[in-house]
Amino acid sequence: MLRRLPAAPKRTVNRTRTAPRRTGHDHEEVDIMDDVAAFNHRIITEFRQNNGTVGGPFAGAPLLLLHTTGARSGKPRVNPMMYLPDGDRYLVFASKAGSDSNPDWYWNLRANPDAQIEVGDRTVDVRAVELEGAERDEKYRAQAERHPGFAEYQRKTDRIIPVIALVPATAR
Question: Residue 47 to residues 79, 131, 145: CA-CA distances in angstroms?
């Protein structure tokens, strides 16, 4: 069963989390969000330079770039992520590596379900639809079988990791 994503709830987030940098100096700290942003920037750049192909931790995996509008800021956002092809749809998984909270892009899609993706060298207009029940479970299981890290992500958290179908405008 498919349902449209409801509006994102009002929430506050502390974005100043820090962690020690592994340089031998415990007093050095680095903003975790800056590290994630830098990592994502490198993946996005490599993706665009190589028509959707990247190396490193995503080598050989199906990858897309999700363009959303910030739920609170209204600013454009781009996130690289693995996907599972499903007919005309692209399924993405709000795993956040097993964190107990959903990723920001999930909240962005709840607030603004019309988005774009880059796949290979194409840009596609899509609408986000959250999967539920047995269909959600089946698709998550399929992703975890192909990429076992997703099974570990689900084991690490008490939340049910959302599965989002990105439905191309031409398929609606």
Answer: 11, 27, 25
Q: Using an 8 Å Cβ cutoff, are 28 and 46 in contact? A: no
Q: At what angle do helices 133-146 and 149-156 cross, to 10 degrees?
A: 130
Q: What is the pLDDT of residue 35?
A: 83
Residue 22 scores a pLDDT above 90 = no
pLDDT value for 32:
54
Angle, CA of 20, 25 and 28, to the nearest 5°? 45
Considering the chain, what is the average pLDDT of its residues? Answer: 85
Angle at 160 between CA 92 and CA 44, to 5 degrees: 30
SS3 assignment for the chain: CEEECCCCCCCCCCCCCEEECCCCCCCCEEEHHHHHHHHHHHHHHHHHHCCCCCCHHHCCCCEEEEEEECCCCCCEEEEEEECEEECCEEEEECCHHHCCCCCHHHHHHHHCCEEEEEECCEEEEEEEEEECHHHHHHHHHHHHHHCCHHHHHHHHCCCCCCEEEEEEHHHC
Question: Maximum CA pair distance of the chain?
Answer: 54
